[in-house]
Design goal:
Blueprint (H helix, E strand, L loop, with lengths): L4 E3 L5 E4 L9 H7 L2 H8 L3 E2 L11 E2 L12 H25 L2 H5 L4 H16 L2
Parallel strand pairs: 3-4
Antiparallel strand pairs: 1-2
Length: 126
């Protein structure tokens, strides 16, 4: 299952998307749910991983290494800073994955959407 997550800088889960089939690419899922467009309209910066490279100027992604070249010291520093800023969000995603249903789900995306909404409610109560 592909479930997109929106979290604040402290890692608090704000929103979980409706589930899509697992074969759906992350950038396609974000575009399907209009996450990037909504964040841009609201003025909320988006920090994302490498799966979102090419999503647009509003999305900050790590700098890719070109074939046959190494990243400069400045580029590595930028990538480390981005990773540090994303770390609380990654921890919240890891906490979601601690729910067994997310690791072993073999149900339809519609049913998984209802399960994800219930888990979001439970996670907010922590």
């Amino acid at each position: 299952m592909n479930v997109q997550v929106v979290a604040d800088p402290t890692g608090k889960l704000l929103w979980i998307s409706p589930a899509l089939p697992g074969r759906t690419h992350d950038l396609t899922a974000a575009r399907t749910h209009r996450i990037i467009r909504i964040c841009e309209r609201q003025g909320v910066p988006v920090l994302a991983d490498r799966a979102y490279i090419g999503a647009g100027p509003w999305v900050t992604t790590p700098i890719r290494r070109l074939p046959g070249r190494d990243l400069t010291t400045t580029q590595r520093t930028i990538n480390r800073a981005l990773s540090a800023a994303r770390a609380p969000v990654e921890r919240s995603i890891a906490r979601l994955k601690s729910w067994r249903i997310f690791r072993r789900a073999r149900c339809s995306p519609n049913r998984m959407t209802a399960i994800a909404a219930a888990i979001l409610t439970l996670e907010r109560q922590r």
